[in-house]
Write a structure and sequence with these properties.
Blueprint: H1 2-23, H2 38-44, E1 47-52, E2 58-59, H3 63-70, H4 76-82, E3 93-98
Antiparallel strand pairs: 1-2, 1-3
The structure holds zinc ion.
Zinc ion is lined by residues 52, 54-55, 57, 85, 87-88, 90.
């Protein structure tokens, strides 16, 4: 009967859900807050390093200056998307944040 088949499938799904349930939540979350903003970066005294992937021109913009220029609402990923290489005009920009050992939320 069709009912027997349906019950078998339902039982299988219940078992799979029970197994996957706890594993769906990672034990550690590295960062759960909103994306970092230049203001946060300035407060945390981290260094922002951006470079052009086309001509390898590299700069370390001042986070406090960026926050003043672009506003405290803009996030670092948004800001990176607006970057244009001042040397070759490429938008192919990459970025790292270094020295972020300090929790920006704790001051
Ligand atoms: Zn460039």
């Amino acid at each position: 009967m069709a009912v027997t088949g349906a019950r078998t499938i339902a039982a299988g799904q219940a078992i799979r859900t029970a197994i996957e349930g706890p594993m769906a939540t990672p034990p550690l979350k590295p960062y759960s807050g909103p994306p970092m903003t230049p203001g946060n970066a300035a407060a945390a005294h981290v260094r922002l390093v951006v470079w052009c992937k086309d001509c390898l021109h590299q700069v370390e913009p001042d986070a406090a200056e960026m926050a003043a220029c672009y506003g405290a609402e803009m996030t670092v990923p948004d800001w990176r998307e607006r970057l244009v290489c001042s040397q070759c005009g490429s938008c192919n920009i990459d970025m790292v944040v270094s020295g972020s050992e300090h929790d920006p939320l704790s001051g």
